[in-house]
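Summary of Year 1 activities. Much of the first year was spent building the evaluation harness for sequence design. The harness presents a backbone, in tokenized form, and records the residue chosen at every position. We chose the following record to illustrate the format because it has been used consistently in internal testing since the harness was completed.
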């Protein structure tokens, strides 16, 4: 009998492999993305200092669109880029968190690029 693999466990394994290669620094911090069924979260992290510089999520009070759809992901991408520029961050490395670069993850990244972040 074939054993089924838990999707979240598979994503976490992929994420560990990605994190071995993708490191954030003060010059180019890491833009990390997490998505759930209802919300989407983004953080810009300096891994050397071990701190989060800025964050944005669809669960915040001022977020108007739902994080469970493309419009919400685009809004969060724009929001994280504006907050990053306000804190002096222009370039980031993108950490897709083990998710496929598709759908909401791609929408968030494209919106952040359009708002001025360089990947």
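For this record, the design step produced the sequence shown next.
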């Amino acid at each position: 009998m074939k054993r089924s693999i838990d999707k979240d466990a598979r994503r976490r394994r992929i994420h560990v492999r990605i994190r071995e290669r993708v490191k954030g620094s003060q010059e180019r911090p890491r833009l990390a993305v997490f998505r759930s069924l209802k919300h989407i979260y983004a953080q810009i992290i300096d891994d050397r200092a071990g701190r989060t510089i800025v964050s944005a999520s669809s669960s915040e009070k001022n977020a108007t669109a739902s994080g469970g759809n493309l419009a919400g992901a685009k809004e969060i991408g724009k929001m994280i880029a504006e907050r990053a520029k306000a804190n002096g961050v222009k370039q980031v490395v993108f950490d897709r968190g083990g998710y496929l670069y598709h759908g909401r993850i791609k929408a968030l990244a494209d919106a952040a690029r359009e708002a001025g972040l360089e990947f």
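Residues 30 and 114 are 18 Å apart (CA to CA). Quantitative recovery figures across the full test set are reported in Table 2.
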